[in-house]
Amino acid sequence: MVLRVQQSQAAAQPLRWTGSRRESTSSGGWVLALKRFGAGLAIAASPVLLFAQNSRPAPPVEFTEAESYILGASLELPGSVESLRRAEVATQVEGLVVKLLVREGDRVKRGQKLAELDTASLDARKKTLEADVVEAETRLRSAESRHRRAQSLFQDELISDEQLDSARFEQEALEARRVSLRASIGELELQLRHSVIRAPFDGAVTEKLTEVGQWVREGAAVVSLLSLEELEVAIEVPEVHIGKVRLGQSAQLKFDAFPAQPLAGKVSVIVPEADPDARTFPAKHRVPSVRTRPP
Fold first, then answer.
1. pLDDT, tens digit, for every residue of 251-292?
2. For the domain 76-84+230-287, what is the CATH code?
3. Whole-model pTM?
4. CATH of domain 119-194
């Protein structure tokens, strides 16, 4: 990758002029005098007496005023591309890797599947819990009916306080079991979702960190991913050129893979401490995005 920093300096366009003489033997004429003031030129005319030396007409006087214009210059330096966002994407549950859906170099979108873990045991546990919920709800409906009858009998003073409390406690216990079973099913569903590892952001896969058939523990990395949306180009600027680089300065970035697709960047960081051995100053240039292939 090559960084080209544009520089500029002002230069003056030279003055072009030609003189002339009037055809006369006794009339007055004009002489052009050129004087330099600083970076510009001034033209003055003063009357003097001219004597005709021939009868040929003189050419006209022509002049062009001095103008300033920009001379372009550039400084080319090698650099290396760094992503501002990279991550080792990890699994949130342990399990056996049954699918690895990406390879090094693949571009992925946020939410795209990267790998899948075996979920057979989780699926079986979920079915068991769902059956337990059905049973608990059936028993709960029966307990609710007994509790209503107990309340009616208690009002008629046909049962004791203890019998009424027993019917109420049975109903509350079954309600609590139903809530617990449903919470367990929710936890299993979360584990099932986490058994599919997805990309947390748009980017490119730089390394596979597992293989199909490998058992991974909770928190183990599956792939390494970096974002291509925000990049920095690290440049080592020689000491003799550091005065030509400024914060916010525009730069043109060329990549070896796509030399015909230069990108515009800006100087975002200049480290004031030099490398004593290389006698260079680190500088970084922010790049909004880069393509991995020509359009």
1. 777 777 667 777 777 888 888 887 888 888 888 877 766 554
2. 2.40.30.170
3. 0.59
4. 1.10.287
